[in-house]
Amino acid sequence: MEIRNLINITDLSVEEINSLINTADDIVAHPEAYEDICRHKKLATLFFEPSTRTRLSFEAAMLELGGSVLGFSSANSSSAAKGESVSDTVRTVGCYADIIAMRHPKEGAPIVAARRAGVPIINAGDGGHFHPTQTLTDLLTIKRKFGRLNGLTIGLCGDLKFGRTVHSLIEAMLRYENIRFVLISPEELQVPDYIKESMDKAGVDWTETSSLDDAMPQLDVLYMTRIQKERFFNEEDYVRLKDSYILTPEKMRLAGENMIVMHPLPRVNEISVEVDDDPRACYFFQALCGKHIRMALILFLLGIKRQ
Ligand code: CP
Predict the structure, then answer these.
(1) How far apart are CA 97 and CA 92, in angstroms?
(2) Contact between 38 and 65 (Cβ < 8 Å)
(3) Is residue 199 within 8 Å of residue 174, measured between CB atoms?
(4) What is the pLDDT of residues 216-247, one digit of tens each?
(5) From CA 59, how far away is CA 49, in angstroms rounded?
(6) What average pLDDT does range 1-10 have in this prediction?
(7) Is 223 helix (H, G, I), strand (E, B) or coil?
(8) Span 64-92, mean pLDDT?
């Protein structure tokens, strides 16, 4: 069987994404049909950067499919700390596991890994580049909330420059119809030019603003993001920009009653905890969707189908 990897969301066709969403829904409807489907299969989670949701949802996903998990949760607890290359690490782990989910601070590291592993590689986030399984999570969340992935106005707010979840979500949504983006950020954290070029090429409608208040009434989805301290070269810039946007119950009053608030999490300050009780807040539901879609993805990449 040809080895399929997931490095960028565009590695999957729209039909394949729709099929993953259908499988995720089938898993919820018929959990008993999946509980032993990955028996004797092993997932390795190689996390060279911190994670809560991505690593643990991958591990929970494989365990709920009846498989096993192994791996490490920081570079310091692997031989990377002794200078081992990514290439040698994944070639070794490919001898122990059937599929690998890897997070690495260096952009492009999963591409190097995919050349050497001999088993499917899933990019669980590479630097400020891409985070395709977060995007699958986001698409499943939107589909479950709206029943569609077309005809939506999506506001992306916060760190749009370094935010890999934002870049991947835009890339994915460009392939659906009648999508409009409202990009809400300080000038210093606007989306990179190559993403703007992709939006122009796809012919989607997009606007940039620094005002969350102005954007709120227009949105079906508000996708909040954290200002990421770890991506800044300079502490002063981080301190100046970190509280650029804080979503509060007062701001929520500016939004429509059907708008949903998403966030890949972790959050720091950008959504006040009072918003959590608003029925439009769906970031913890989103984290649950992450487990379901990763279950579907593991099955897809291992070529396993429900009998
Ligand atoms: N959304 C996300 O990637 O969260 P973690 O960093 O906790 O994995």
Answers:
(1) 9
(2) yes
(3) yes
(4) 999 999 999 988 776 666 778 777 878 889 99
(5) 16
(6) 93
(7) strand
(8) 96
Neighbours of 306 (CB within 10 A): 11
Longest Cα separation, the chain: 57
**Residue having the nearest C-alpha atom to atom 4 of ligand 1:** 53
Chain CA centroid to CA 22, Å: 18
- Measured in angstroms, how far is the CA atom of residue 51 from the centroid of ligand 1? 5
| Type of residue at 156 | L
Residue 248, Cβ density class (10 Å: 0-12 exposed, 13-18 middle, ≥19 buried): exposed
Cβ neighbours of residue 239 closer than 8 Å, sequence gap 6 or more:
none
**154-174 pLDDT, tens per residue?**
999 999 998 889 999 999 999
If you measure from the C-alpha of residue 264 to the centroid of ligand 1, how many angstroms do you get, rounded to a whole number?
7
Which amino acid makes up residue 211?
A: S
Question: Which ligand 1 atom is nearest residue 264's CA?
Answer: 1
Which residues have a Cβ under 8 Å from the Cβ of 220 and sit 6 or more positions away?
146, 152, 153, 154, 256, 258, 259, 260
Chain length of the chain: 307
Distance 34 CA to ligand 1 centre (A): 25
How distant, in Å, are the alpha carbons of 23, 170, 203, 209 from that of 144? 13, 18, 26, 28
- Give the pLDDT confidence of 110-143 residue by residue, as tens digits: 999 999 999 999 999 998 788 999 999 999 999 9
Give the atom of ligand 1 at the shortest distance from the alpha carbon of 125.
Answer: 3
Q: How far apart are CA 64 and CA 295, in angstroms?
A: 8
Kindly name the residue from 41, 42, 55, 103 that is annotated as catalytic. Answer: 103
- Confidence (pLDDT) at 130: 87
The pocket around ligand 1, CB under 6 angstroms, is made up of 51-54, 125, 134, 264-266
